[in-house]
From TrEMBL:
Its EC number is 7.2.2.11. This is Nickel import system ATP-binding protein NikD. SMART domains: AAA. It is an enzyme of class 7 (translocase). Signal peptide: none annotated. GO terms for cellular component: plasma membrane. GO terms for biological process: peptide transport. Residues 323-374 are annotated as: Disordered. NCBIfam families: oligo_HPY (TIGR01727). It comes from Halorubrum trapanicum. It is found in: Cell membrane. PROSITE patterns: ABC_TRANSPORTER_1, ABC_TRANSPORTER_2.
Length: 374
């Protein structure tokens, strides 16, 4: 079933303004999300990218009340979904939105799927909760969903338990459960992290298919290959804030914030400790530019006060960086003069990989042999 997505007035499906989540720890308050604002348009795929601990997952879970309060405290100027505020909804009201209108795919399918119940029971449950259909109709829909996500012999495997499937198959089943309510927005948290490159390629094909059907997606990842494969727009996060945003082509061809450049160059700049751990130890600033302690281009203006304002990059209103060097008194050439484009620097290696790396080329949905053996 395909439901009308609405929104003919041009308003975004999801609009978030100044989202803040702080978590009480033994060492005091941890500002996991610190003033995040973004939109997700209808039918658009937006990727939140950054190192582990940068606040990506907490941002997504804060939107629909999945962060336990306490120990967390969540506030915002506005969180609107389909033109209506969800920031002040009760837990009962949020439950009516979760699953039906907004669905989550969590990072670990082993913990997301209940080992006690069969796959069929878990896929049919959201269908029957949100729609008045018979058990047999829900079961038929569940078979169709499992086929769509690439589960072989879907009708037979409906009565299997999660432990009878491989990790890649479990992730597909978790996606089927999320799609069961026919959501307008799918939030997927690192959905390709725990699978090998062959399964990852199949999952990326699946996400492209979901987007092609008109479902909006907010995808959390630290894998730049995933971003390049599915994103329309990119939000780069560091230390609980967004430091750069823009269309995927613009950000990949011209990474403009010093952290984005470091991320592309090294897939991370940490010493092994997560950003959350370094923030708790006081190693990451909680004011001004969060990246300034590690930035080779930091100046006095980077310290103190609020996060630097977003400024357009290369006269593009869609591509912007939160960096003082793009302000009226700054010098963007100081950080962009020697910056290398990941599109250019990896183009030759990417061309070589495509002939051998399944994650770099379209994959044919074939049965998961590990799942078949089980």
């Amino acid at each position: 079933m395909t439901r009308s997505r609405g929104g003919t007035d041009g308003t975004p499906l999801l609009s978030v303004r100044d989202l803040r989540t702080r978590i009480r720890t033994d060492d005091g308050w941890l500002h996991a999300v610190d003033g995040v604002s973004f939109d997700v348009d209808r039918g658009e795929t937006v990727c939140l990218v950054g190192e582990s601990g940068s606040g990506k997952s907490v941002t997504c879970e804060s939107l629909t009340g999945l962060v336990p309060q306490p120990p967390a405290e969540v506030s915002s100027d506005a969180v609107e979904f389909d033109g209506e505020s969800v920031a002040d909804r009760s837990e009962a009201e949020l439950r009516s939105i979760r699953g039906r209108r907004i669905a989550h795919v969590f990072q670990n399918p082993q913990s997301a799927l209940d080992p006690v119940y069969t796959v069929g029971e878990q896929v049919t449950e959201p269908i029957r909760i949100h729609e008045d259909v018979s058990r047999s109709t829900a079961r038929d829909r569940a078979v169709d969903l499992l086929r769509r996500v690439g589960i072989p012999r879907a009708g037979e495997r409906l009565d299997s338990h999660p432990h009878e499937f491989s990790g890649g198959m479990q992730q597909r089943i978790a996606i089927a459960v999320a799609l069961a309510g026919d959501p307008d927005l799918l939030i997927a948290d690192e959905p390709t992290t725990a699978v090998d490159v062959t399964v990852q390629a199949r999952l990326l094909d699946l996400f492209r298919s979901i987007a092609g059907d008109g479902t909006s997606m907010l995808l959390v990842t630290h894998d730049l290959r995933v971003v390049a494969a599915v994103a329309d727009r990119v939000l780069v996060m560091y230390g609980g804030t967004i430091v750069e945003r823009g269309p995927v082509e613009a950000v990949f061809s011209d990474p403009s914030h010093p952290y984005t450049q470091a991320l592309f160059d090294s897939y991370g700049v940490s010493d092994g400790a997560s950003i959350a751990e370094r923030t708790a130890r006081g190693e990451i600033p909680t004011d001004g530019c969060r990246f300034r302690a590690e930035c080779p281009h930091a100046v006095d203006e980077c310290a103190g006060g609020a996060q630097p304002a977003f400024r357009s990059v290369a006269d593009s209103s869609d591509h912007a960086a939160s960096c003082v060097h793009y302000g009226p008194d700054g010098d963007p050439s100081a950080i962009r003069e020697n910056a290398t484009s990941p599109m250019d620097s990896r183009a030759e290696r990417g061309a070589e990989r495509r002939s051998t790396d399944p994650a770099e080329s379209p994959a044919t949905p074939t049965p998961d042999t590990e799942g078949e053996r089980r």
